[in-house]
Amino acid sequence: MQRILIALILALSTTVALAALDKPLMPGAKVAFLGMTFTDWSTEGAYNGVRPDETARLKLLEGATRDRFIEEGFVILSNDPVATELASTANPADCYGCDVRMAARLGADYVLVGEIQKISNLILSVNLVLRDVRSGETLRGLAVDIRSNTDESWLRGIRYILKNHFFKS
User: Fold this and answer.
1) Strands, E, within 66-133: which ranges?
2) Does any domain span residue 46?
3) What InterPro entries has UniProt attached to this entry (predicted)?
4) What is the per-residue pLDDT across 57-76, written as a single tens digit (0 to 9) for each?
5) Sign (positive or negative) of CA dihedral 87, 100, 22, 7
6) Contact 154, 126 (CB under 8 A)
């Protein structure tokens, strides 16, 4: 009986957690977009350091993400009041809640962070997470793997996340 109860609790907790990812987003909400972080786990990065084309692609994805949120009616807040803390944070997508705390200081309803993880020049992962600032609850979050290290493949990854998960109709 105890095993059945544990199995039932686990099944329901997963269902409840996934249900949060389909909650409607508040129209006109204020979003603290803390940007995208590039994490290079490839041996290429270890030997050659930062590549200017990848740095430019990161800015390209930030612009595409920001533009899509604005198109959907969200207000993107300025990060100026938390610029110093943000600059000293290695990865706002993985900082033990510092993203939510910074967003709260900005007066945001939601905080948005992203990460590009490079495994090799062929295999990369695009990650995007939207959290409710008051509760810290993840409202949207998805990671997609992409193949090839080009502007087109990076944009395809972020557009897939935005179209099929964040703003699916």
Assistant:
1) 75-76, 110-118, 123-132
2) yes
3) DUF3280
4) 999 999 999 999 999 999 99
5) positive
6) yes
**Cβ neighbours of residue 43 under 8 Å, at least 6 residues apart?**
none
In a domain, 3, yes or no: no
Query: Which residues share a beta bridge with 118?
Result: 40, 124
Confidence of residue 121 (pLDDT cuts 50, 70, 90): confident
Q: If you ran DSSP here, which 8-state letter would residue 109 be given?
A: S
Q: Which structure tokens are listed for 10?
A: 């686990």
Domain hosting 54: range is 25-166
Number of compact structural domains in the chain: 1
pLDDT (tens digit per residue) in 80-117: 999 999 999 999 999 999 999 999 999 999 999 999 99
- Integer-rounded Cα Rg, in Å, for the chain is 17
